[in-house]
Structure formats: structure tokens, C-alpha cells
Automatic annotation (TrEMBL):
Gene3D superfamilies: 2.30.42.10, 2.40.10.120. InterPro entries: PDZ, PDZ_sf, Peptidase_S1_PA, Peptidase_S1C. The keyword Hydrolase applies. Belongs to the peptidase S1C family. PANTHER family: SERINE PROTEASE FAMILY S1C HTRA-RELATED, SERINE PROTEASE HTRA2, MITOCHONDRIAL. The keyword Protease applies. This is Trypsin-like peptidase domain-containing protein. Residues 274-380 form the PDZ domain. It comes from Hymenobacter citatus. It comes from the Bacteria. SMART domains: PDZ. Keywords: Hydrolase, Protease.
Length: 500
């Protein structure tokens, strides 16, 4: 199964609530129902006439959800320079007329406030020289890029307009597998299009954010991608990227970002960024222009190898309810809280954890200085602690001071230059040979044998053991992604987590 960032198509959807807003549910703040940002002025919604269709979740409520969502779905058009440096395969791209040498692409967006703030995907607007927003009533506005976050594939735009319809927020934590959902967007540059399906999974990690691209494996220095997608079978296609996934009450529960497909078009599954994470990220972009990340400072197996790693530690994946800690960064929030390698974090602020993807999302909702309450197991004994999260700069400094020897001990491998004859045979411009793999290390655990050639780490070409040193030390957080060539000539991609 190929994924969107693999040259297939990322999608966008947008939705907005124009129905009168109900009273807040018990346990949910009125702010959550009415405004995306805490200091927003809430716009008066336009009532919609909908038949009495029963409880939320019934098929009949598709009409209600569509009427509530479509007024806030916007069409985003982007223009790029002569190089056409847009994210190929992520949106709906096309050449400009008259052979002017520029390129254009198309996506979707969600009006999240009445005064013109719009949520979309980072990949929709990245590297764009011009961004244009077209409202459902065909009004057109130039858009300003307020900020973007490649690590969650989110971006925030602003247009100069007031009294716009805006989306009503749901609560992605309360979304249930099997729940009916509706997607709204501009697939294939068509006008507003609505599709429906169910939530087929939650906290899904598919290894797509900050993945090495087709164009030279360009990627940030240190893969800090946060993936805990809502998976749905609502039909999403190229051009949908950046739009909204809504529940049958018309509430935003996710920003659609990717599809799993072998053709580039809808083939069964799509993935949305949970709105509870999006709210924090977009709020930071509005207030600071960048994302303020609170970091705990622990490492853990990446989702792709989590079950295998636990088995190698003599643990049954189905029995371990939580996240197995493989390392604690010195001088980090985790170290100050007393966490140790081998601990199993079971809950954050009372919320049970079932996967590392869910864990990374929960931490990503916090800023530096936030305190989180942790429940964990050590030697089968249940314990509790509190940790005050640190910022990226403090965590990067701590990691930079950590010895490479410790990192290499975790990897369990040594490296050497690739002989010139092998480079010529495989037509390689760069690469480092895995010379030795030690029992119990990460390479041994994931089955990377000696003789493998490391070609890229986090998108950077590797041509010497010193390049590996630099790549490991520059990775500030999250997952180090390695592209390698196996001894049989096949290409493999694997992840190594340094911490969150």
C-alpha cells in the first residue's frame, strides 16, 4: 500500500458550521463549541432547516452536517516560481497557461474564525509564492501565511474579511471508531464536494510526515513529525488536502491530510489530523508565528517496530498497556521527574495510553512549562509522577551534551566508508557501510544486517561516519529516519526514536 506522500495524493477538506450553536455539552467548555481561539469574537451562525433525524451518528444527519459545514469550505489556489517547487503529489497541481514557466496547485481550507483565519495543510502552501482563497460565494482574497508547522502538516492563513461563517469545533478525543463522518472539500478543483464514511481507526501512524520526498530526499534536520491520525473511509481525492472532517452534528473533528492509495486517488482510507492537536498548533502559529513545543525527553520504539521491540524485551505487546521507555535524556523533564529506561508510561493526565502515536500527540498538545501528570509501571509496580515540560532549545542542548557513545550503543552498529567498487556497482554518489551489528542493539532488533548501506538520515546524504555523527546530534527530537540499501539491493526505510 502506497501513501500520499509517496507521490500519491494528499487531500484536503473544509467545513464550517452555520447552524445555530447548541448549549455546550456537560464537561465541555462553551469556548470549545464556539470559537477556535480563546479570544475570538464568535460569529452568529446562520440557521439551517434540517429534518428531525434522531441522534447524532445516524445516516440521516449527513444532510445536517453538510449544511453546517459547506459554507466554511474554501478553495485554496497556490502559485509557484519557475521551478514549480510545489509538493508534487500532495495537492492538485497544474501548469499555468501560456507557458509562463510557473506552476499552480489547488487545495482546500477551513474557516476557523469569523474574521478570516483559515486552517489548511502545510504541504498545500509550502514554498508558494502566492496564495489565493476563493470562498463558496465566489469572493476571492489574497491570503497571508501566518505560520506553518511541517511536523504536524498544518498551516494557518489569514484573509482580510469579517462576518464569515466559521466551523464549530468538536472534540477529537470523544470520536469513536464506527462513528459516521462527513468530508467536505475541493477534489480535482471541483466546487464544494461532500462525501461520507465512518471512522475506521484512531491514533494511526503511517510514517508520512517529514518523510524523505521524491525530490532529493529533502527533509528537516531531525524528523519531529507527530502522527496520531483519525482514519476514515470517506472518499477523499487530490485537491481535498487541508479540508475538514466533521461529525454528523457538523462539528470539526479533523483536518484531512493524507490517503493510502496505489493510484493517487481514493482507494479506501484517508487520514485526518485530530482537531484537539490542531487547535494547539494553530493557536501557537497565530500567537507566536511558530509552534512552542513542550518536550518530555524520552525515547521509545517507533510505531512501525513497537510490537517487535516489546517481544524482544520478553514483553507481550497486547499486555503492555502504555509506552515502553527505551531511554531518558539527561537534564530533561523526564529525568527530573524520575523516569528511567524500562518504565512503561500508562497514562498522561489520567488518559490511558494505548500506543506511542497517542503518546506523542498528547505531549504535542503542551507548551514548555506545562506540567503533565504521568502514571507508569516500574518492575510491575504502579507509580505516579509529575513532569514540567521543557522547550526545544533546552532539550536540544541536553541532547547535544549526551555522548555519541550512548547513541551508538543504542544503535548497536559500527560504520565504515563504502568501497568505491560497490558505489560504482550500485551507482551511488554517497553512502556509509554498516560494518558490524551487535546483538541487542536497534539494528539487530529491526533486522538490519551488516553490509547494509546507509544513504540518507533525515533527508541528508550520508557519505562518511562523521556525517552520521552530525545527523544523530542534530536530531532535536522525535524520530530519526534512515533510508538504506540492503545487501540484496532493495531499499528500506526505518525509524529510530531519540525522544519526545
Amino acid at each position: 500500500m502506497r501513501l500520499l506522500f509517496d507521490g500519491l495524493c494528499l487531500l484536503q477538506l473544509v467545513s464550517v458550521s452555520c447552524t445555530s450553536r447548541p448549549e455546550p455539552e456537560q464537561g465541555r467548555s462553551s469556548d470549545e463549541h464556539t470559537a477556535f481561539f480563546a479570544d475570538d469574537t464568535v460569529q452568529t451562525a446562520v440557521p439551517t432547516e434540517t429534518p428531525a433525524t434522531g441522534a447524532s451518528g445516524s445516516i440521516g444527519n449527513f444532510v445536517k452536517a453538510s449544511k453546517a459545514a459547506t459554507p466554511a469550505v474554501v478553495h485554496i489556489k497556490t502559485t509557484y516560481g519557475a521551478s514549480g517547487n510545489y509538493a508534487a503529489g500532495y495537492g492538485q497541481g497544474y501548469d499555468s497557461p501560456a507557458g509562463r514557466g510557473s506552476a499552480m496547485a489547488s487545495g482546500s481550507g477551513v474557516l476557523i474564525t469569523g474574521n478570516g483565519y483559515i486552517a489548511t495543510n502545510n504541504h498545500v502552501v509550502e514554498n508558494a509564492s502566492q496564495i489565493e482563497v476563493i470562498l463558496p460565494d465566489n469572493r476571492q482574497f489574497p491570503a497571508k501565511l501566518v505560520g506553518r508547522d511541517p511536523n504536524t502538516d498544518l498551516a494557518l492563513l489569514k484573509i482580510e474579511a469579517d462576518s464569515l461563517p466559521s466551523i464549530r469545533l468538536g472534540n477529537s478525543d470523544k470520536v469513536q471508531v464506527g462513528e459516521w463522518v462527513v468530508a467536505v472539500g475541493y477534489p480535482f478543483s471541483l466546487n464544494t464536494t461532500v462525501t461520507a464514511g465512518i471512522v475506521s481507526a484512531k491514533a494511526r501512524s503511517i510514517g508520512i510526515i517529514n518523510r524523505p520526498s521524491q525530490r532529493g530526499y529533502a527533509a528537516p534536520a531531525g524528523n519531529t513529525g507527530i502522527e496520531s491520525f483519525i482514519q476514515t473511509d470517506a472518499a477523499i481525492n487530490p485537491g481535498n488536502s487541508g479540508g475538514a472532517l466533521v461529525n454528523t452534528d457538523g462539528e470539526l473533528i479533523g483536518i484531512n491530510s493524507a490517503i493510502a492509495s496505489q493510484t493517487g486517488s481514493y482507494a479506501g482510507y484517508a487520514f485526518a489530523i485530530p482537531v484537539n492537536l490542531a487547535r494547539k498548533i494553530l493557536g501557537d502559529l497565530r500567537k507566536y508565528g511558530t509552534v512552542k513545543r513542550g518536550l518530555l525527553g524520552v525515547s521509545y520504539p517507533s510505531p512501525a517496530v513497537e510490537a517487535q521491540y516489546l517481544q524482544q524485551q520478553g514483553l507481550q505487546p497486547g499486555v503492555v498497556k502504555g509506552v515502553y521507555i527505551t531511554g531518558v535524556l539527561e537534564n530533561s523533564a523526564a529525568a527530573a521527574a524520575g523516569l528511567q529506561e524500562g518504565d512503561i508510561i500508562q497514562s498522561i493526565d489520567g488518559v490511558q495510553l494505548n500506543s506511542s502515536a497517542e503518546f506523542s500527540e498528547r505531549i504535542a498538545r503542551h507548551r514548555p512549562g506545562d506540567e503533565v501528570k504521568l502514571t507508569y509501571l516500574r518492575n510491575k509496580q504502579r507509580r505516579t509522577t509529575s513532569a514540567t515540560l521543557k522547550g526545544e532549545e533546552a532539550t536540544a542542548t541536553a541532547r547535544g551534551n549526551a555522548s555519541l557513545e550512548k547513541i551508538y550503543n543504542k544503535l548497536g552498529a559500527s560504520f565504515a566508508p563504502v568501497p568505491a567498487a560497490i558505489k560504482q556497482q550500485l551507482n551511488l554518489q554517497a553512502g556509509v557501510l554498516v560494518q558490524e551489528v551487535r546483538r541487542g542493539g536497534f539494528f539487530d532488533q529491526v533486522g538490519i544486517p551488516s553490509g547494509t548501506i546507509i544513504a540518507f538520515i533525515n533527508g541528508q546524504a550520508i557519505d562518511s561516519p562523521q556525517d552520521i555523527d552530525q545527523a544523530l546530534l542534530s536530531a532535536q527530537n522525535g524520530i530519526i529516519q534512515v533510508l538504506a540499501i540492503a545487501p540484496d539491493g532493495s531499499r528500506v526505510v526505518f525509524d529510530f526514536s531519540l525522544g519526545t
